[in-house]
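Single-chain item
Fold in token form
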Amino acid sequence: MKTIIKNGKVIFPDRIEENITIVCENGKIVDILKLNETIWGDEKIVGDGDIIIDAQEKYISPGFIDIHTHGGGGHDFMDGTVEAYLGAAETHAKHGTTALLPTTLTSTTDELMKTFDTYREAVKQNKKGAKFLGLHLEGPYFAYNQRGAQDPKYLRNPEPEEYNKILAASDDIVRWSLAPELPGALEFGKVLTARNILPAIAHTDAIYEEVIPAFEAGFTLATHLYSGMSTVTRRNAFRYAGVVEAAYLIDGMDVEIIADGVHLPKSLLQFVYKFKGPDKTALCTDSMRGAGMPDGESILGSLDKGQKVIIEDGVAKLPDRTAFAGSVATTDRLVRTMVNIAEVPLVEAVRMMTLTPARIMKIDRQKGSIQKGKDADFVIFDDNINVSHTILGGNVIYGN
């Protein structure tokens, strides 16, 4: 049985082509045909039982890949339940996400250990939601002054006794965000890199001179650029460039941005786009349980140990409104923001939500673009990025 998607405008990494038919089989793209190459009714193209999806001249994009999300739809991955994992994955699938990295918050080691078991079971049961690509641990190794909404009572420095115990407990960790200036952080980064786990710079007070050795140790990604990180600062009256400046100065540094139009305004979205470009910039939601939910009170982190937050103005805030407490964005909103507010061409906005995060996580041979042999993951949307279909491995997980 094949899945055939016809009558759409296909978004490739560098262009958009109309009147394209995509043929999928066994979860992979097996053919990409121009309209005049397709003979409907020919047994070579369409067979009994094949699924035909008419895109109705909408856009056909690679499935969106979110490499930093904490939950959605009223669920947080720190809830520690399979239900939370599945609920969040299904919520994000409705908005075009076909793959994501469940992300933890700063917590106790015991909570992390429970998360590992829950994740493994959720992978087995996940049939209707975005695919889990592995775990992203955010914290607990952060700078206190850049903690943001992370609970300060769990902050600590990386110690081999602790992180080796964590690493031994799970083979599912693919990314770990931490502050590289902390004692022991560089050594820890080298351990992660040796295990093919991506160390990312996050919640940090590092200066440029501390970022350079971190980059060389494998810290090649800046987690949610501008959020929870240093910029130009003074030490003993002398000025130093911070992590923000280092991200621009180091050509090889990748960045991710929360492109909800709130965490970063139009000017900064355009600044990142101009100076890092679509091939070094990934869009991420960094969403908490409030994604896809109405305004009002919510909880950041687990239901029993999390912090109360308020959802308003399209973002989650701390109760005293002194800082943002997380995003409530979905991936379709990120692309829409980049196109409508940052005025980025659709092709490049989509690339930042697909091929660039795939390349950062080293899965671009399987995902991130529409190409023969790659996974049959797609999202179909209209001119305003309203999603009508989400397709994972050739199967429709959202839409009719």
